């Protein structure tokens, strides 16, 4: 089973890539996907989208899903 992982903005710079395809043997959490795709610590403020819909870091990821990670957004 394959999952596409995308990193945006500063996360792309920190990981050194914008996209990685990983193989999973069964459904797993977003946190597990993060650990499989990077050695960085998963900040609880990082935004996550699965198949273009925002989800929390405890959400399950399945075969064929696209998981996108976005750094925290600030503004003013």
Q: Your description of this structure?
A:
By secondary structure, the protein is of the alpha+beta class. It has a single domain, classed as Ubiquitin-like (UB roll), CATH 3.10.20.30. Helix content is about 20%, strand content about 35%. The protein has helices at about 10-15, 30-35, and strands at about 1-5, 20-25, 30, 45-50, 55, 60, 65-70. It has a five-stranded mixed sheet with strand order 2-1-7-4-5. Strand 4 (about 45-50) and strand 5 form a beta hairpin. The termini are far apart. The model has no long low-confidence stretch (mean pLDDT about 95).
SSE diagram, text form:
Layout: E1 2-7, H1 10-15, E2 19-23, E3 28-29, H2 30-37, E4 47-50, E5 53-55, E6 60-61, E7 66-70
Parallel strand pairs: 1-7
Antiparallel strand pairs: 1-2, 3-6, 4-5, 4-7
Highest CATH level, the class: Alpha Beta
End-to-end separation in angstroms reads 42 Å
H/E series = EHEEHEEEE
Instruction: Supply Rg.
Output: 12 Å
Total DSSP helices: 2
The quaternary state of the protein chains shown equals single chain
Number of strands: 7
């Amino acid at each position: 089973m394959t999952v596409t992982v995308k990193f945006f903005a500063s996360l792309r710079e920190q990981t050194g890539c914008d996209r990685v395809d990983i193989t999973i043997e069964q459904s797993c959490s977003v946190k597990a996907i993060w650990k499989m795709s990077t050695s960085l610590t998963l900040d609880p403020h990082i935004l996550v989208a699965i198949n273009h819909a925002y989800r929390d870091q405890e959400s399950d990821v399945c075969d064929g899903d696209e998981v996108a990670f976005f750094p925290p957004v600030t503004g003013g």
